[in-house]
Design a protein that fits this description.
single chain; alpha+beta; five-stranded antiparallel β-sheet; two-stranded antiparallel sheet; 39% helix
């Protein structure tokens, strides 16, 4: 080992192309997830710009259905609330913008105890479309996790860029 001369090794084109491809793939996938999280954050933030209007719950019940496989029961909170906006009376149906079904009837029963008929509440009305209203804002958690897919964007771009700039220079295999 001592006194041996090293032979420079040329960085292979296939290895560079692999690193460029993997880096680009990581960056693109990170960007796709970043855009998806940003859209979720934006939609959740949008209702916070809507007007807060007093409303009254007029009907509330738990809807039950079989939406997929036989025997797979799903439940959904069905609400009707009345509110006045611009001199007109509207009836809203949504708790949040993304109401959906759940298997947990207990959770919906707890929500049902909050939204009993006759209860006064506050709903958020879209001034551009007064028929669109919600009782609660959605979480903005997607915006708080944007940093994670951005790590893949930055790391993937750095990997692809470093591999592309390497362009076949001679290197010492003992060098770090």
């Amino acid at each position: 080992m001592l006194g041996q001369r090293y032979r420079p090794v040329r960085a292979g084109k296939a290895g560079r192309l692999y690193l460029i491809g993997m880096g680009a793939l990581l960056a693109v996938l990170g960007m796709v997830f970043t855009v998806a999280l940003w859209k979720g954050y934006w939609k959740a933030s949008e209702t916070r710009r809507w007007l807060a209007i007093p409303c009254e719950i007029v009907a509330a019940w738990i809807g039950e259905g079989q939406f997929s496989e036989p025997g797979d029961r799903r439940y959904r909170l069905e609400l009707r609330y009345r509110y006045d906006f611009g001199g007109q009376t509207y009836v809203g149906r949504r708790v949040t913008r993304r109401d959906g079904e759940t298997r947990s009837r207990g959770r919906l029963e707890r929500m049902l105890s909050v939204y009993r008929p006759g209860t006064k509440a506050q709903c958020y009305v879209n001034p551009a479309d007064p028929a669109a209203a919600v009782l609660r804002h959605e979480t903005r958690a997607p915006g708080y996790t944007l940093w994670f897919p951005l790590l893949f964007v930055v790391g993937g771009a750095a990997m692809a860029g470093a591999a592309a700039l390497r362009s076949g220079r001679l290197r010492d295999p003992r060098a770090r």
